[in-house]
Amino acid sequence: MSDYSPNELLICIAARIFEDGKTCFIGTGIPMLAASLAQRLYAPDLIAVFEFGGTGALLEDLPMAVGEARTFHKAVSASGICDIMETAQRGFIDYGFLGGAQIDPYGNLNSTVIGDYAAPKVRLPGSGGGNDVGSLCWQTIALMRHDTIRFVPQVDFVTTPGYLTGPGAREAAGLPAGTGPLAVISTLATMGFDPQTCRMRLDALHPGVTVDQVLENTGFQLLLADEVRHNDPPTAQELETLRTQIDPDRLYI
Amino acid sequence: MEIVASGIGELIQPPDLEAFREWNRTQKSRKLIDKRMDEKEAIARFVQDGSYIGTELYGTVRCPMSLIRELIRQGHQDLGVAGQGVLELDMLLAAGQVSRIDITYIGMEVYGVSNGLRRAVESGQIRSIVDWSNAGITWRFKATSIGAPFIAVRSMLGTDTFKHSAAKAVKCPFTGETVCLIPALILDVGMIHVHRADRHGNAQIEGISGFAFEMARACKRLIISAEEIVPTEEIRRYPDRTIIPYYLVDAVVHAPFGSHPGEMTYLYARDEPEIKEWIQANKTVEGAQAYLDRVVHNVADHQAYLQLFGDDRLAELIEMREKRE
């Protein structure tokens, strides 16, 4: 038994990705905790951007919604959705966090329907800002639970663009050049994308996880990095910060 | 202009900018008249069966919930909605009043999917559902706001979100690159909740302004609900804070705690137990009906609704608010 929860691990791994002095589009839940942890330990000038208008909030208290007051707590600007989305469209947003019910080998995400569009088995909430984040931010990071229900050869609906059908497909569709998925952080491992094929590649395993375990839980052929690394477990400092300062009420961890 | 790809979704509310200009010329008064009325009168006068409506901001944040509850009370049918929604659209869908949706997101944020949406779509009760991105819907309002039939953007391209929208991809006549054209969206009725307004409808918002600016300029009729009604002198003292000028507005409703159970920036916090109560109730049709009976059908108006919670509870929500430091 590890002395941290799966969510705590996910948050700590995600928090280590940020460079200081960059902008990041943040959604509700785990991305908020990861950004807050990064601000406190690794990237004090990480600028959190929320879709309804908050820019540069100090993430001292956990927001419950992407439009609520804590998304612009001590922020540098409180504007509106057009300002935020247009700022992303002009190339000012470095990272964006994404999630979904399904992801495919090219990092395309589905949060719209399970089953047939016209007669869906499950109607999910829809794109929200997801498609815009996936279209307009420079690099995106998807957070996923890792199993064969979610990692599928083909998503039922491409809500949010990853690399679409492969190399050059984003640019051919008209999406801004040089953008696309950077990483997928799952409950088992960290994946990147092979620059030649744009297909998902296993880069690093979470503590105690084997390559076989990841492959068994992935519904498509995953590429392997030449040397699959091992992610360090959460440090005592990360866990202490998370538990005592960021989420003392244990809403997410 | 060469069309590269066309979304197959229905253009539910085709934009007619000439008609909109004419409407704004003949149907929107520039006179500084008193537009105050209660929720009952505002909804009865401006919403009809078949109306296409929009609300701002959303569900748990600065949302015109007292107007939504009145809309459920009056029971207008066959509504079209522009769907960025949480509690408000989940409730309207559960009440069976919606037949057409331009959807970007209808869900319960940290609490997951909208059961109102799921039941309505999976049963086939919704006649038309058309998907867009969040920026896509807002840029549709922006197109109307600038008075143009469409706006060119770089989002949605290459995806099924595009395919199931009514957008078009074209070759840009200036650069030759593929861009996405988003059609203007003109609402029959918009509803926006604000911090303060005067009796003419000049409205001011604190904190983020969501898409209030754009949507207010994309409505044939606009109902403002406000936490506080202030003298016009107060508006004139801080004109830089006015995001919605009076000539856009058809009704001004005084609605203290109008966003409850959602929050209102710097005034009161969200009422978490009450939000959870609805989410729990809406797991079944019967539960949703019982909840709506309690907070809508069995109370006469917004004042009576607030009495269900009591002054002590409302004072707690004020105390729990985000404070300016």
Explain what the structure shows.
The complex is a heterodimer of chains A (253) and B (325). With 253 residues, chain A is of the alpha/beta class. Chain A has a single domain, classed as Glutaconate Coenzyme A-transferase. Chain A has seven helices and 14 strands. In chain A, helix 1 (6-15) crosses helix 2. The mean pLDDT of chain A is 95. By secondary structure, chain B is of the alpha/beta class. Chain B folds into two domains: 49-149 and 185-317, Glutaconate Coenzyme A-transferase (3-Layer(aba) Sandwich); 152-183, no CATH class. Chain B has 13 helices and 13 strands.
List the helices and strands and how they pair.
The complex is a heterodimer of chains A (253) and B (325).
Chain A: H1 6-15, E1 23-25, H2 30-41, E2 47-49, E3 54-55, E4 77-78, H3 81-89, E5 95-98, E6 102-103, E7 109-110, E8 113-115, E9 120-123, H4 130-136, E10 139-144, H5 169-173, E11 180-186, E12 189-193, E13 200-205, H6 211-216, E14 223-230, H7 236-246
Helix pairs in contact in A: 1-2, 2-7
Chain B: E1 3-6, H1 17-26, H2 39-46, E2 52-56, H3 65-74, E3 79-85, H4 87-94, E4 98-106, H5 115-122, E5 128-131, H6 134-146, E6 150-153, H7 160-163, E7 168-171, E8 178-183, E9 187-197, E10 203-204, H8 212-216, E11 219-229, H9 232-237, E12 242-244, E13 251-254, H10 272-281, H11 285-297, H12 302-307, H13 310-319
Parallel strand pairs in B: 2-3, 2-9, 3-4, 4-5, 9-11, 11-13
Antiparallel strand pairs in B: 1-7, 6-8, 7-8, 9-10, 10-12
Helix pairs in contact in B: 2-3, 3-11, 4-5, 10-11
